[in-house]
Amino acid sequence: MQLELDHISKIYGDLHAVDDLSLTVPEGQWLAIVGSSGSGKTTLMNMIGCMDTPSKGSVTLEGRRLEDLNAAQLADVRKNMIGLVFQKFYLVPHLTAVENVMVAQYYHSVVDEKEALAALDRVGLKERAHHLPGQLSGGEQQRVCIARALINCPKLILADEPTGNLDEKNEKIVLDLFRQLHEQGTTIIVVTHDALVASCAQREIMLNHGVLVGEKWNDEEARKAYEAAGGRPASTGSTAEGAQSGDVPIGFDDPTKAAKTGGEE
Amino acid sequence: MAADMTNRKMFWAMIVGAVFRRRSRAIMAVIASMVGAMTLFCLAAISIAVPQQMNEELRSYGANLIVTATGGMSDETVSTIESTVTGVADAKAAAYRYESVRINSAPYVMAGIDVNEVRNLNRHWNVDGSWPSEGRVLVGRDVADALGVSIGSTVTIGYRGEDSGQPNGDVAGGAGASSGSAASGSSEDKAAGETGQQTRDGRVSTDILDTSGTKFQVAGIVDTGGSEDEIVYAVGSDLTTLAGKRGPDVIEFSSEASEDQLSGLVSKLNKQGAAASAGSTGSTGAADAVTYQAQQVTKMTASNQRIITMLKTLFWIVSLVVLVLTLVGVSTTMASIVSQRRNEIGLRKALGASSLSVAAEFFVESALYGLLGGLIGMGLGYALARVLCAQVFERTLDFSWALGVASVLLSVVLAIIASIPPVRRATRIDPAIVLREE
């Protein structure tokens, strides 16, 4: 498995932001982590993205236990293996779109403007390459973020509410980009509370107050392949009510899905 | 942007972007550096230029070299001495001829001078009224008090060279040296000792009641706080009329020579004086021998140095305060910049930037603020120093490239040092804040 979470918890005082979660993700899987605000999605994302460490348990990425790595080694893992997409588009405000893409190249290895322009072309922004973020719309900024995330060909893309601030048109563009990346074999983990975005993923897990409360597959073939490869359902050691503690996934409905799709499904 | 972008170019693109596309904060940082550089350059320029100026100015407040003769110097001797002194460095000179005179039956010393020479050499003299002119004398404060005279009063002065009981040279030497050395007191004591009389208020008590002489009007009263206050000054022609023609006893010089040059000059003049005496003795006999001696005056030089040292200390203290204020100003601005760019720093770290690379970017950015501030501050500091020198010290100030380079470098170093605490905070920023903030 590319990613293995083994009974990880993140505890702040009495609060369990993530409570004893075990999860495995194979290479090429598109996973959505869903849940309401404060359910621990972003905390989980930080731990997977080497930006935070679990209070308990361990995270293994490409066979490397992250708790054994120091800050510099974690930075290396981030720049070499992970592409990050944020809800708030986080771009460096005083750098142009292409410079923002090249920043990722700069910290990774060698700056190549042609590659950066090609990445912007791929997200449909070649003409806006030399504009500052303030001169771009929200959708365009998010597409710059995606271009930056994929510029170093990461094995894993972590996206935190990637369409949270976008209109439907831009949301579709972004989801199409993820679809392309998924088809190329990139592992994608998307944190979202948007049912439509979640439904694009092959697999969904649901968190509620840090506890795993459900798991479902949107792609049956992917599920079979996963299980054939020895993959097991996600699980939690939490004894909280509704926790998915055994080997049997607990299904769940996407409450906003009907509203988002106009009741087609 | 060029297609052949390299990592180095990208580094500078990020720095330039941060400096020139975030102008408001950048301007604050540049202003903080600029004010420091401007003040320091201005203070340094003034603290270098003004002591030089003071040195020159203070030299005009008295002699630093005195040549005394045992008898009146001939024109040839005066010419030799002056050419020897001016051969070493530019110098201002004033010659004095001293004679013993009687006013209201009391003996006083009268000096024959060239007014312009003496006034030019002794700008510190506080003269109430006018300088002497033909028929009018300048009276020392002590003499005026003793005689009870004021400006416009008339005094009758009689020449008592023949009844003074001592050679003119002794009087001349004593009074001449009194301008700058301690020899005055000993000379007066000697004079008093030889006549068995007491010295008081610069005059010698006598029981000879002789009030005859030439009438002079008191043109002014000089008050220096020194031995000059015990002398009556007249123009040279009046003294010649009164006492006959004779050369000066003393020549005072204000030379621009250094201390070492002055010491060498004193030795040279003393050798010349001795040689002249020997030559004169050999050809015309001991009676006509004219020897002269030179001595250096150190009193003014020492006080000059004390004032300059005090001024320099003051400048250093003010500079130190400005230095600290600049550090605080730049540091605060950099802290504000780091705080404002907290998310950006977190983003960079999330993208894989090491703490070292984040620190390097901020240090270079800070150095750039220091460089810009230093360059502008240097220009403004020079303008300010120039105006100050012109208005306050009445002196033009030349631009010092060494000082300019030093102030810019100092500004850069200060900016880097000032940014250490904020940059340390920047490197500790947790990349997770980028995802945490919702």
UniProtKB/TrEMBL annotation, chain A:
Membrane spanning residue stretches: none
Record keywords: ATP-binding, Nucleotide-binding, Transport
CDD domains: ABC_MJ0796_LolCDE_FtsE
GO MF, one annotated term: ATP binding
Region (Disordered): 224-265
Source domain of life: Bacteria
Name the UniProt record assigns to this protein: ABC transporter ATP-binding protein
Organism, as annotated: Bifidobacterium scaligerum
From TrEMBL, chain B:
Principal location listed in the UniProt entry: membrane
GO molecular function: transmembrane transporter activity
Start and end residues of each ABC3 transporter permease C-terminal domain: 317-431
Region (Disordered): 157-207
Bilayer disposition of the protein: Multi-pass membrane protein
Record localization: Cell membrane
Residue stretches spanning the membrane: 314-338, 367-393, 399-420
Leader sequence segment: none
Keywords: Cell membrane, Membrane, Transmembrane, Transmembrane helix
Record keyword Nucleotide-binding present: no
Source organism superkingdom: Bacteria
ATP-binding is among the record's keywords: no
Gene Ontology CC terms: plasma membrane
Homology family: Belongs to the ABC-4 integral membrane protein family.
Protein name as annotated: ABC transporter permease
